[in-house]
Specification:
The protein is of the alpha/beta class and 275 residues long. The protein folds into two domains: 2-168, Rossmann fold (3-Layer(aba) Sandwich), CATH 3.40.50.620; 181-269, Pantoate-beta-alanine ligase, C-terminal domain (Pantoate--beta-alanine Ligase, Chain: A,domain 2), CATH 3.30.1300.10. Helix content is 36%, strand content 21%. It has ten helices and nine strands. The strands form two sheets. Strands 1-4-3-2-5-6 form a six-stranded parallel beta sheet, sandwiched between helices. Strands 7-8-9 form a three-stranded antiparallel beta sheet. A hairpin with a 2-residue loop joins strand 8 (253-262) and strand 9. Helix 6 packs across helix 7 (146-158) and helix 9 packs antiparallel against helix 10.
């Protein structure tokens, strides 16, 4: 495995590779990230994992400065899975002030985008830059960041990028909590409570499978249940899987998404529903 920090080194290393599978990350890797790398290993002959904490996707009051950076430990976890770890400095990814961004559709300002202004613009811009640098044939993203995955799929389609985007199922702890680098911010009591987010989404899914179709009522009920337990709820939403649009009665492929804060930790989760 080769650790690379510069664009020039990356270009030289990948110049003759023809089947690159790419896993972009912000590091502080957990089992969910490692599973993405395992999937990549089965699909490409050269596996590239990027580790880059992207300042463009953090708001002014978010956790960019304290976001955990654990490059040495991350590289140990990737041994035998990745061929290249690309860990550039901010100055390498942004040698000049970024003034050109990917312009996104309205969905980028809904759901998480409503509460994280500019977040998905920053995500899409850095992902496009990474795609240009790595030139992968396949890129793998986790479904936990469902809105991110949907936006990246649209970007790849609309920019005619020759990249297959694969969505990997959310990796979960034994009690059902979606794995996230931010879980480490939770206190012991908060970690015990955190599983209630996935349990709440599971109840909504159960209601939908059982025939309920009052989407707004189901969303409100789930949000109220979380708030009653002390969560600061941003949203619980039932959307179409295909484009995250608001579904109409009779839609068969849905997804239930939620974002809520427990103490100072913001958690997101989702569950797909096929009727």
């Amino acid at each position: 495995m080769q650790l690379i920090h510069t664009v020039s080194e990356l270009h030289a290393r990948l110049a003759n590779e023809k089947a690159i599978a790419f896993v972009p990350t912000m590091g502080n890797l957990h089992e969910g990230h490692i599973e993405l790398a395992r999937m990549a290993r089965k699909r490409g002959t050269c596996i590239v994992v990027s580790i880059f904490v992207n300042p463009l996707q953090f708001g002014p009051n978010e956790d960019f400065d304290k976001y955990p950076r654990t490059l040495e430990a991350d590289c140990v976890k990737l041994q035998g899975l990745a061929d290249v770890v690309f860990a550039p400095a901010v100055s390498e990814m942004y040698p000049a002030k970024q003034t050109i961004y990917v312009e996104l559709p309205p969905i980028a300002n809904e759901l998480c985008g409503e509460f994280r202004s500019g977040h998905f613009r920053g995500v899409a811009t850095v992902v496009l830059k990474l795609f240009n640098l790595v030139q992968p044939q396949i890129a793998i993203f986790g479904k936990k960041d469902y809105q991110q995955l949907a936006i990246i799929r649209q970007m790849v389609t609309q920019f005619n990028l020759p990249i297959e985007i694969i969505g990997a199922e959310t990796s979960r702890a034994a009690d059902g909590l979606a794995l996230s680098s931010r879980n480490q911010y939770l206190s012991a009591d908060e970690r015990t409570e955190a599983v209630y987010l996935s349990q709440t989404l599971a109840k909504v899914r159960e209601s939908l499978v059982g025939g309920a179709n009052g989407y707004a009522a189901l969303e409100a009920e789930a949000g109220a249940a979380l708030a009653k337990r002390g969560w600061q709820v941003e949203y619980v939403a039932i959307r179409r899987q295909s484009d995250l649009g608001i579904p109409v009665e009779g839609e068969r492929k849905l997804v239930v998404l939620a974002a809520a804060c427990l103490g100072k930790t913001r958690l997101i989760d989702n569950l797909e529903v096929c009727l």
